Amino acid sequence: MSTTTDDRPKIWRSLAEKVDPRRAERLASEETGIQVGSLLPDNTLVNRRTFLAITGATTATVGLSGCIRRPEENILPYTVQPEYAQPGIPLHFASSTSHRGEGVGLLVESHEGRPTKIEGNPSHPMNAGRTDAHLQARILDLYDNERSGRVRHGEEDSSWAEFDAWWREKAAELEGTRGAGLRILMPPTASPSVDRARQAFAARFPAATVHTWSPVTEDSSRVGTGLAFSQSHVPVYDLGGTSAAGPRAKVIVAFDCDLLAGERGFLNNARGFADGRRVHSTDAQMNRLYVLESTLSVTGMNADHRLRLAPSQVDRYMRGLAEKLSAQSGVQMPPAVARAVEGSFDALPEAHRLWIEKTAEDLAANTGRSVVCAGWRQPFHVHALAHAINVALGNAGTTVHYYPEPDAAERHGLGDLVEAMQGGLDTLIILGGNPVYDAPADLSFAEALANVQNSVHLSSHVDETSTGCSWHLPMAHELEAWGDHFGLDGSYSLQQPLIAPLRGGRASHELFALVAGIRAWRGYNLVRNTFRERLGMAGFERSWRRALHSGVVDAPPSRPRAPALQDSEVAAALSAHAPAAAGGWEAVFIPSYQTWDGSEAHNPWLLEMPDPVTKVVWGNVAYLSPASATELGLLTPHDFEREEYEGSFPNGWVLDITTSAGTVSIPAIVIPGHADQVVTLPLGFGRELAGRHGSGVGTNVYTVRASDALGFATGVEVRRGVGQEIVVQTQDHHSMTTITGDRPLAIDATLEQYRETPDFAQWREPTPTLSPLWTEVDYSQPRPSAQGGRTYQPYPTPREPREGAPPRYKWGMVLDLSSCTGCSACIIACQAENNIAIVGKMEVARGREMHWMRLDRYFVGDDLNDPQVALQPVGCQQCEEAPCENVCPVAATAHSPEGLNDMAYNRCIGTRYCQNNCPYKVRRFNFLDWHGQIPSMARMVFNPNVTVRMRGVMEKCSYCVQRIQAARIAARRLTTVVDGEIQEHRIGEELVSACAQACPSGAITFGDFNDLESEAHRMAHLDQRYSLLAAVGTQPRTVYLGKIRNPNPEMV
Amino acid sequence: MGWRKPMEQLDEQYLVSEGTSLADVTEIVSKVTEQKAPRLWWILFGISTAVTGILGLTIAYLLWTGIGIWGNNSPVAWAWDITNFVWWIGIGHAGTLISAVLYLFRQYWRTAINRFSEAMTIFAVICALMFPTIHAGRPWFLYFSLPIPNQMNMWPNFKSPLLWDVFAVSTYFTVSLLFWYVGLVPDFATLRDRATNKIRKWAYGFVALGWRGSNRHWSNYERAYLILAALSTPLVLSVHSVVSFDFATSVEPGWHTTIFPPYFVAGAVFSGFAMVMTLLIIARTVYGMHDLIRIRHLELMNKIMLTTGSLVGYAYAMEFFIAWYSGNPYERFVFINRAMGDYWWAYWSMITCNVISPQFFWFKKLRTNIPFMFVISIVINVGMWFERFVIIVTSLHHDYLPSAWGNFSPTVFDVLTYCGSLGLFFTAFLLFLRWFPMIAIAEVKMVMPQADPHLGHHGHDDHDEDEDAMTAEPAMAEE
To answer: Cα–Cα distance between A335 and A320 in angstroms, integer?
Structure first.
């Protein structure tokens, strides 16, 4: 240490400092104990300053590294606040959409301009607030990042401007030829604006033709009603209506007709059917459903009597029924028709004659209160006969209402179009649909398309058809575009956009109007002008606004017609088409409950939704009866022995199925109750270009579908192919009986048994009567105004509940097994509401599906060929004595003061003990980071009020607790003080869970069990109530109503 | 006072080979840690550490990805993870039983094997603790399950058997570790005194805590040992009883069974002895410990295995009986399903390994046949693993609602985690063999004839009944 003169201070405190300042410093610090300067010499590596610097830098680095996991997000204020938008408070908009060609009303929830949930519009007459799984899942399509966002011309990217320019030129050219060489292909659409565009199109291009194609066709019904009534009509069934006299339709006979989940108007049918199943007192009347079908369908699962038949034989059986009916008194069967079906009854197999006879007697005993219906697969003369029977039974006008076809224009089919295309067509405009994929194989649509000079395809995705066309145009989602629709009953509803097109598409009616030369072709103007045309100018703006608000146009409703039956024409058609002889293999084409005709194959929610009947996910398989599988050498007697024990057959054998149109190899499974020598082929899978979720999932069976056998094919060859594939099912067909013991799970009884013992269900599963050792929660006590639980109490004394405050809420759910049809709308509604992840095929195979709501399907009875089905929706039972709560080591799942079994995701460490200890196995664990792979656009579908769960966390049904909280906030705002008294507004019937809101048959009732006036309370105290696994002592809050069947006493 | 009777009268043998001097004992045990490790040790150690490395990688991947890499699912939310946990905890039972219970019951033959089995206990419990830790979905929040005061004012749920597990197993681990260490102190001092280099001197000196072998040291040592033995004895019963509560207090058919606590304890002792046997036979052969670990010891252990194996067999039968007798259809089905369902092979493997295989020990010839007992000891551990698998997986996979039934199949990561835990165990155990006195030198000396002040004197018994004196007495094998 050197001290130079320069270091010496000019002003010094002591002599020592003057001589050696550093020493003085040291002495001073030693003296006072305070560090004055550095204790370390300057020339060492680390001195105080560098130490501080390093420490500071380290702290900062550690701090920074802690930030790495947090995603950066910007919070931006609105520059222009959207109308009515309040952050955190969702808005609801009435809209409508076209669902399988019919208009249905929607109510769409929007958070800060982002639609998140689709519900049914209660004001719409056809769906009355109800939705199905497909409507629920459409919200996910909106945020599909694989939706096409660019106009393509050939292989190259183009733009709307280029297309518009091209079309202007082309249109001028085509106008010169009056439209010869121009064709339009579109799916059946019931829309006033499309009608207008169609007229304008016909005026502009008189020589051009509009063709219609949908793989699940209504042509049989159109032609059939046209034959029966001289003009095409839509039969709308009025099954419900609960009065003292019982349901309007007391006897329903469905001939190969998936009345409740597949046919047009099914939402209306399901609602009416369920009304007729709801028996709440011993003197109540109930409807009875007879089903004749080949493949077990949703309707078949709900049948009281079901006859399995090859599809070609349905005709024969209907004739037999008609003959038996003509013999009954009170049935005015037209003599011509009666003559035409003469001898049909005796031609039926001996074993089934009694069945038909008793059904006929039942129908005849309920004239004017019954329905006979035929499905889309059946030929037109079967439809005509069904209508003739309805007229003869006096049902027309009472239970069956005939409305004019909403899409009344003359139909040109796909066959004509392909013929024209093969001849070298100039311009083909395809407005939606995917004909390259779903056209009948014998038409060779794809090859024909290559002959078309200019082909334009409007579609939401770049699909199989788009790649074969010269122009691909992106189609807007229905929540992005204006539109209007006709319901089956002619009701007129408006579709309004909730968001600007995310991918820049146009709606199909917009493009059609553009093509038709309507100047105001943009959606808003088009729809408004249509509206103005239809309703006139007077008070236009007012009625327009009212229609937008309610979603349904307040126009005079169209009335059902009472068309006269053309009996001789029906008789002639029946004579001309002799029923097919029995024998030989047949193939039935059914639209898949998941992807329908393939148009929903992009949607992973639907792909992962278990098929309501087979519980197969992520793919389609052929269905066989056990006897057919034995005939093909797939099952051995040993398999049947194992089935007795395990409740499942082996499956997945590949079958080679050959029809007149081609051969397909598809894995098969055995389904009880399936017709023998029939193979069912579900449509809608095996897409090549359906995005990362849908491509290559399942097998495309359109390859064996011929244009003359759209519904079913006869003379089919079925052989065992090579190999066996893995079929993923969420449930085997384990029954509740056999080796498992007679388990009282989905408890059922016949109407007679119910009348004898109304509390039959409780006799099967009695609630333990021993009083517990602990004090039970008393929900009648006033709700404490603080948080309720024993949490941190910042006040010296806990706040006492108010004197005379009303009782707490006691949330509960009632599931009516009698009215549940098994359609699975609740599963997807729950998924959309609660941000439930999809996991993919292999994870479902491992048993890791995440659905909070499960639809259990049990086969009842020992006969594999004639099983009865019991359906049981199972979500969290919200047990009073929840086994899951006791075993969680960290108290992550706990009871709320209102009886909810709450999950605190942030607290959960993922021991999965709760899942083990749940007797219902309704808890779902995030084994992997399911949400991590979701593209950012698809994240926009999330409900902002529901936590998105990370991996390692348990989740389960919460009774839609976020809806309860929202209702509570709303109720609090309505609470008033009158004369110093607090008038608390209690949450009432406005609160529904997502599943209950969606359920088409109203099988789910949610509400406050403490509200003695509530429907939920009333339902929960019906005689047929029971608790699932009551013997375990869990005291579930969810109440089931035992299923009541109504078999014909003479047929049992 | 049987143990006081002269050897000759009882027709029994001493626990150490005749002619073995006190110095021989010290030499035999100590030299293992002083000489170069045999080639076989290096081979085994190489394999074990490699497997442990794989375990590390597997766990890293597990923590990164989630426990979905295993085969667990719904309804089988617990599978190999908890099977392994219970299996290891069961193995960890033999240590305390041998050290504490046999000590209190004056079973002097335990001295040859207690060090060994205690070490095994420690390592088995470490392996066991690993599983509940990594099987949690979010292991980084495991501290939620500890009663740490926190700003959330949240306690863990004291009603949960999993929480009882946390307490039971951690208590067991702590007490076992202390017990083991206390016993090691005099022997560490022996090693320190024999040490020829500085590092050994320092290291053994450090862990020997200044032991000088004074009278006062011995007196304190004996006291401490007795107190710890008394403390650990209830733990022998409690730990596996508490582990069984995980199942017994649930509502699952097949789990909700009152026989579980004693049945689990018997099973744990059974598997623990089997594991000690496996290790003992290897170490005895490799290190030539025949003079200290005699065939008599092994035979006695086999008798315990025969007893506990039969107890376990009884429990299996009783479970079946009660399932039938209860009239509960779910319970009945679960048991029929165990024997005849999808996992019938696991059930029958369990019965074969656990109930049938120990029955051979009724025959003295087989009971004293070393290769035979070696095979049987491994078979028993396989069987005990299957027992836990059967209890956990077959009960869960088909329970109440047939709609929720499923199956479990392990993934490669299940196998890697399990094998990895074996690697961890053997790595620790091999290090123990290398650096620790594997047989309790001081305790063995206490039971040698030389330690008997009355050696050669007959027919007197007015002895001081002091505990210390009793322990230091000449002893012989007792049953």
So the answer is: 15
Kindly provide the ipTM of the predicted complex, given to two decimals.
0.90
Q: How far is CA B441 from CA A42, B23, B111, B116, B296, in A?
A: 58, 10, 9, 12, 18
Range name among A276-285, A784-793, B171-180, B426-435 with the lowest pLDDT average: A784-793
Domain A152-212+409-486+492-550's class?
alpha beta
Q: Which two tokens stand for residue A489?
A: 């009953």
Residue A794: predicted pLDDT = 39
- Between B73, B156, B336, which is nearest A890 by CB? B156
CB atoms near residue A431 (< 10 Å): 25
Give the pLDDT confidence of A816-839 residue by residue, as tens digits: 999 999 999 999 999 999 999 999
The helix/strand/coil state of A96 is strand
pLDDT at site A507: 93
**Are the Cβ atoms of B74 and A923 closer than 8 angstroms?**
yes
In a domain, B213, yes or no: yes
Please tell me the class of the A738-768+807-959+993-1045 domain.
alpha beta
Check which CATH number belongs to the domain holding B226 and give it: 1.20.1630.10
**Residue among B86, B152, B163, B251 with most chain A CBs within 10 A, to mutate:** B251
Residue A926 sits at the chain B interface (C-beta within 8 Å): yes
Q: pTM for this structure?
A: 0.88
pLDDT digits (tens, 9 = 90+) for B95-141: 888 888 888 887 888 888 888 889 999 999 999 999 999 999 999 99
The answer to whether A859 and A871 are in contact (CB under 8 A) is no
Helix, strand, or coil here: A166?
helix
Q: Which CATH architecture has domain A586-724?
A: Beta Barrel (2.40)
Residue A771 pLDDT level (bands cut at 50, 70, 90): low
- Does residue B29 sit within a domain? no
Cβ atoms A414, A422 nearer than 8 A: no
Interval A82-86 mean pLDDT: 76
The DSSP bridge partners found for residue A221 are none
Q: Do A369 and A286 meet the contact criterion of CB atoms below 8 Å apart?
A: no
Q: Which residues pair with A667 in a beta bridge?
A: A654
Q: Which 68-97 residues of chain B touch chain A by CB within 8 A? A: 68-69, 71-78
pLDDT at A787: 40
Q: Does B407 touch chain A (CB under 8 A)?
A: yes
Sign of the CA dihedral with A695 first, then A701, A706, and A707 last: negative
Looking at the 3D structure of chain B, how many domains does it have?
A: 1
